[in-house]
Amino acid sequence: xxxxxxxxxxxxxxxxxxxxxxxxxxxxxxKLQYKIIKRKLSDSSPPIVGYLLALLILLAFVxxxxxxxxxxxxxxxxxxxxxxxxxxxxxxxxxxxFLKICxxxxxxxxxxxxxxxxxxxxxxxxxxxxxxxYPIIILVVxxxxxxxxxxxxxxxITIPTPFYKKPFEFTVGFRTTFFMFFMAYGLAVIAAVVDNxxxxxxxxxxIFLTILTYYLKPENEYFVWSYSFTPAKFLxxxxxxxxxxxxxxxxxxxxxxxIFYFENLGVMLLFTLLGYLYLTTLILAKYSAYPNExxxxxxxxxxxxxxxxxxxxxxxxxxxxxxxxxxLKEFLK
Amino acid sequence: xxxxxxxxxxxxxxxxxxxxxxxxxxxxxYGIIGENGAGKxxxxxxxxxxxxxxxxxxxxxxxxxxxxxxLLTEPFFFTKITGKEYIQLLCNARKEDISNIDDxxxxxxxxxxxxxxxxxxxxxxxxxxxILLQENxxxxxxxxxxxxxxxxxxxxxxxxxxxKALNKTVIISSHIFSTLSDTCDEIVLLKNGEIVKKVLxxxxxxxxxEMKAFIIGNKIEKLELK
Lengths: 333, 226
Known about the structure:
Helix content of chain A: over 70%
Number of strands of chain B: 9
CATH superfamily of chain B: P-loop containing nucleotide triphosphate hydrolases
Helix content of chain B: 25-40%
Radius of gyration of chain A: 22 Å
Radius of gyration of chain B: 18 Å
CATH topology of chain B: Rossmann fold
Oligomer: heterodimer
CATH architecture of chain B: 3-Layer(aba) Sandwich
Structural class of chain B: alpha/beta
Largest sheet of chain A: none
Number of domains of chain B: 1
C-alpha cells in the first residue's frame, strides 16, 4: 500500500511514509479508508444498491438498539460489550504488524485510537440519546485502551470445543466468538434470577446471531473441492451439522428457560425453529455466491428476510438452494 | 490410468497449456519440471477439475477428483483449527473414518496446536499427512519438498516409494532435480505450456546435464567473480 501517486516524486528518496510528516501520514490513511469504503459501496451494480444497503444497515442498527434498550435492564452495559467486540476486531495482530511497519510509534497510536473511536461512535451517539453517561465513559476508556493493545491471534492455548468430529465452521467460529457464549449464558442465568423471560429469549437470539456469522465468508475452494459428495449432499451435510451444533450451543439456554418458564416452551421452540430457518437461508445464500462473497443484492434479500416476517423464506430458500447447487457443480461432481 | 488428450487452457489471451498429451499409469511416479510459469500448477488444477479446460482427461477413477490427493504448493489453513482437526476435516470430506491420528503422526507435528501457527515446512507436512490418510488412489504433489527439513525429505521420498509399491499413481513437481531422480519413473519437461521432453529413468543423468548446460550457460562467467 503506497500513498504516493505514480507520477509523484518521493522528495525524501526513501520508501513511502519515511520523511513524510506524521499528520499527513494519518490523514492519508483515513482518506484511503474512506476511498475503500466508497469503492465497496459504489462497486455494486447498480451503485444505488450499495448505498441502499448502507441505509438498511443503519436502520437495522437503530432498530436493534431500540429493541435492546426496550427489552433489557442491563442494555447499556451489553451495548458497551457489543461495541467493544467490534472495536477489538481492529486489534488483530497481522493488521497491526502491517500498520507498525507503515507508521512510526506515535502516529500509529494516534491512528489506532482514532479508528477505534470511529467504530465506537454510533454506539456513543445512541448512548448519548439514551442519556447513559456512565456507560459512555466506560466505553470510551475501554475503546482507547484497546487501541493500545495488540491481540495475539496465535494463542499457545488451544480452546477446546465439542465439535471435533466435524471441524470447521463451528470449531473456528466458537474459538473466535467464545466470549459471546459466556455473555449469552450469563444473560440467560440473569433472566432466570430476575424473572425476565424476554431477556432469556434475547440470549437465545444472541446465540443464533453469533452462529450466523460463521457462514458469512466463503471458505478456500480446496475445502469444498475435497468433498467426494454431490452438491445437494454437500449442502444437506452442511445444514445437518449446523443444526446439530447449534442445538449443542442453544441447549443450555433452552434447558434453563424450560425449567423456569415451562409455560413458554412453545415460544422458545418457535424462536429456535426460526433460528434454524435463518441458518439454512444463510448457508444456502453463502454457497449460492460461491466461491465469491455474497453479492449486495443477496445481502439485501437476507436483511429483508431478517426484518420482514419469515414467510418470505419460503420463496427465498428454494431460490438460494437451486443457485447453490449450480455454483457447487464447479467443484463437486 | 489417467489419459490426457489435447489439453489446452487459456487465461484470457494467454495460453497457459498448449495441446498437452500425457498418460499416467498405476504404480508409477511421474515428475513434472519446468520454469516458474511453465504451466505445472495449471496442469494439476485442470487434472483436479479446479479449472475448466479444452481437451479431455479420462480416468478409470470416476470422477478422478474424488480419488485424488492434491498437495498444493502453499496449502491453506484456517486460523483457529488444530492440526488434528485439519486431518479430521479432510478425512470427513472423503468419508474416511479415521482413528488414532496421533499414532499416524509420522512427522511428529504438534497436532493439538493451531495449524496456522506452524512453520512453512510443518504446514506442508500436515497437508501431505492429511491427503495420505484420505487413502487416495492418485496423488498430485506440487513441490512437496519445498521448505521441508532434510529428515522429512527422506521420509517423503520413502513415502513416494511406498505409494508406488501400493500401485498408486504419483505425480510430483519439484525444483530439486535430485528428489525427482530419486523417485520418478518418468520426467516430463514443460516449457511455456508445452511438453518439450519426456525422459525415462535411464536418461535422467543426461537430462540433468542438458538442463544445467541450457539453464546456466555462461551466465555465471558474466559476473566475472574474483
